[in-house]
Amino acid sequence: MGKNMSQKILIIEDNDQNLYMMTFLLKAHGFEIIAARDGKSGVALANQINPAVILLDIQLPGMDGYAVAAALRSTTGLERVPIVAVTSFAMLGDREKILSAGASDYIEKPINPDTFVEQIKKHVPKNS
Ligand code: MN
């Protein structure tokens, strides 16, 4: 158990394999994981649990990642929560689009197990 013991990470992801991989890796490093399978419930959960970081898939049923990022940024108390977009899109325009929608950073699928946790830890507030 370390300093990450009580830190919650919200993962908004509709793909079972990606969700499993991200959950497995982050739990192994002591984070508590809360998952949402669609954008609307992701926004609701973010309000309830006040996560340290949000991992956000772009292609989601109903409300997509762009809409989720914008909704989170316009929610009182979530204006500055780190949002890391996780997407299979590799084009520069997509990166700019999700960053301008409010994401703090962007990582590409497939998840690289060797670097993923460090990429997320960069965004975890040190004293939360
Ligand atoms: Mn998806």
CATH structural fold name: Rossmann fold
Supply the number of structural domains: 1
Spatial gap, N to C terminus? 16 Å
At the first level of CATH, the class is Alpha Beta
Overall body shape:
globular
Bound molecules: manganese (II) ion
Multimer state: single chain
The helix/strand series, from N terminus to C terminus, equals EHEHEHEHEH
Averaged pLDDT, please?
Answer: 91
- Quote the beta fraction: 15-25%
CATH architecture: 3-Layer(aba) Sandwich
Largest sheet: 5 strands, parallel
Radius of gyration: 13 Å
The counted number of beta strands is: 5
CATH H-tier superfamily: Response regulator
Structural class, from helix and strand content? alpha/beta
Helices, by number, come to 5
Low-pLDDT windows of residues: none
Lateral strand order in the biggest sheet: 2-1-3-4-5
